[in-house]
Amino acid sequence: MTAATGPAPLGDAETLRQRAADALATARERTATLTTCVDEPELSAQHSPLMSPLVWDLAHIGNQEELWLLRAVGGRDALRPDIDKVYDAFEHPRAERPSLPLLPPDEARAYVADVRNRVLDVLQTAPLGGDRLVDAAFAFGMVAQHEQQHDETMLITHQLRRGPAALSAPPPPRAPAGSTALRSEVLVAGGPFAMGTSTEPWALDNERPAHHRDVPAFFIDTVPVSNGAYERFIDDGGYDDARWWAPEGWAYIREHGLAAPLFWRRDGGGTWLRRRFGVTEPVPADEPVLHVSWYEADAYARWAGRRLPTEEEWEKAARHDPATGRSRRYPWGDADPAPEHANLGQRHLQPAPVGSYPEGASPLGVRQLMGDVWEWTSSDFLPYPGFAAFPYREYSEVFFGPGHKVLRGGSFAVDAVACRGTFRNWDLPVRRQIFSGFRTARDAGPEAA
User: Fold this and answer.
1) Model confidence over 266-283: pLDDT tens digits?
2) Are 309 and 377 in contact (CB under 8 A)?
3) Where are the alpha helices (DSSP H) in 126-268?
4) How confident is the model at residue 371 (pLDDT cuts 50, 70, 90)?
5) How many angstroms separate the CA atoms of 252 and 258, rounded?
6) Whether 372 contacts 343, CB under 8 Å
7) Are 56 and 150 spatial neighbours (Cβ–Cβ below 8 Å)?
8) Domain 179-226+299-448, what fold?
C-alpha cells in the first residue's frame, strides 16, 4: 500500500494568490445571489428557529473574514470590534439571534464589501509561507470555505422559508442510458488504505493527519438510495414498526409524528408531493432521497437487511484505488471537480437522478459519492489519531463525541472548495433540514474477503 496522494499542484506565489482570490470571489458571488433575491423584511426574518436570519449569516461572513484575514493575517486594526460578540456563533444559539442588535441589510452589505476590499489588499502583500496560517494561502482558503459553508446554510434557510420561489436554476442532466442496469452494489476488498490527509493544502483540522486504516471487506451501494426505494419503506409500514428504529429514533418520530422525509406530503390521490424552494411538485422516484435524518437512514437500512457504511468504509470506497493501492483526492482521480464529475456548487437546486455522473465514478464503479446529497454514515464524529486543533478548537474539537454523526461527500449545495474525498461533515442524528441522504452497505462473507 502506498501513502495518500500529494497535494493539488499549487504553483508559485502568484498562482496561489490568484487561486485564493478566485475562491473568495466565487463565494461572494454566491452570497450575493442568496441575499439579493429576497426583500429586506425577508432577509431580516427568522424563517425557522433552526436557522439564523439571512442577514446574520451575511454579516457573520464578513466578521470572520475580518478576524482571520485582516486582523490575524494582515495585522490590521479592528474595523468593527463592537460586533464581534454579536456574530460569534458560540455566544448565541440560532434561535436567539433575531433578538440581537444585528446590522441592518444595507449596513451589513457595506461592511462585508469594505472587509473584502481590504482583504484583497492583504492578499497581494501577505507572505504565503513561513507560518502555518499562511502556508499555501491556507487562511484565505479557510475563509473561502467558511463562506461557502454559510452559503449552504443560507440555502437551507431558503428551503425552509415560506412563500413564492426566490431562486431558480436549471435541472441537472438526465442520467445516461443504461444507468438503471447498474449493479446494485460492489465489493470493496478488505485490507488497509490511507485515510485522511497530511498534504492537501486547504484541508481542515478534522481531516488530518493521514493514517492507515485496515477495513474488512464489505459491499456498498453503487448509487444513493432513491426516493422510489424509500417510498417502498414507507409503504411497507417502516415508520410504524419499532423493529427498524434505534430506540432514540423511534421515540423521536413518535413524539413528532414523522411519517416521511421532511417537505413530503400526499395529495388527495395518494401521490407524494414535495416542497422544493417554494415550488410544490411530485416527488421524483429516480432522485436520491433528501432531507432524512440519521435515524431515518438507519431505519431504512435495517428494513432493507443492510446497514449504513462506516466513515472508514465510505472513504475507502471513494478514494482507494485497488490497482495502485493509492488514495485519490476524489473518486475519479486527483483533478479538481468539474461539471462532468459531480453535482456541486448550486448549479442545480436538486440532486441528479441516481446513476448520473459516470465520469465521477470511483475505480470500482461507485457513482455520486461527491455532490447530490450528503451521505449519513454510521460513525460518530471523532478525532483522527494525532489530531491537533487548528487554527481554533471551536471548528471541530468541541463537536467530537457520540452526539454527532458523520456525513460525507457533499451535496448539490456544496461548492468544490469545501468538498474533498477527505472532507468531513457532522450533525445531530435528528437533523432533517440539511441536504442529507444516504447509501447502504453490508458485510462481506469470508468467501468475498
Assistant:
1) 999 999 999 999 999 999
2) yes
3) 138-160, 227-235, 247-256
4) very high
5) 8
6) yes
7) no
8) paralog of FGE (formylglycine-generating enzyme) (3.90.1580)
Give the residue-averaged pLDDT of 83-91. 96
What gap in Å lies between CA 396 and CA 233, rounded to an integer? Answer: 34
Residue of higher predicted confidence among 177 and 154: 154
Q: What is the DSSP letter of 265?
A: E
Whether omega for the bond prior to residue 98 falls within 30 degrees of 0, making it cis, is no
Cell numbers that stand for 295 in this block: 435515524
| Residue-wise burial string across 91-100, b where 16 or more C-beta atoms lie within 10 A, e elsewhere | ebebeebeeb
**The residue type at 63:** N
> Is the backbone of residue 280 left (phi > 0), alpha (psi -120 to 50) or beta?
beta
> Which residues contact residue 51 at a Cβ distance below 8 angstroms, ignoring those fewer than 6 apart?
94, 153, 156, 157, 160, 433
Q: Cβ neighbours of residue 330 under 8 Å, at least 6 residues apart? A: 318, 319, 337, 341, 360, 370, 420, 421
Q: What is the pLDDT of residues 97-110, one digit of tens each?
A: 999 999 999 999 99
Residue holding cell 414523522? 258
Coarse DSSP helix, strand, coil percentages of the chain, rounded to the nearest 5 percent: 35, 15, 50
User: CB atoms < 10 A from the CB of 16, how many?
Assistant: 21
Find out whether 59 and 111 touch, Cβ atoms under 8 Å. yes
Task: Residue 400: name the closest of 377, 422, 384 by CA.
Answer: 384
The domain made up of 13-160 is a member of CATH 3.30.720.120: no
Radius of gyration of the chain (CA): 22
Side by side, the strands of the sheet bearing 264-266 are: 264-266, 272-276, 279-282
The burial class, CB within 10 Å (0-12 / 13-18 / 19+), for 373 is buried
Contact 312, 195 (CB under 8 A): yes
C-beta of residue 330 within 8 angstroms of C-beta of residue 361: no
Residues facing residue 226 across a β-bridge: 288
| CATH 1.20.120.450 domain range(s) in the chain | 13-160
The predicted structure's pLDDT at residue 12: 87
Length of the chain (residues)? 449
**Residues β-bridged to residue 280:** 275
The partner residues of 282 in beta bridges, in order of sequence, read 273
Q: Band of the pLDDT at 183, cuts 50, 70, 90?
A: confident
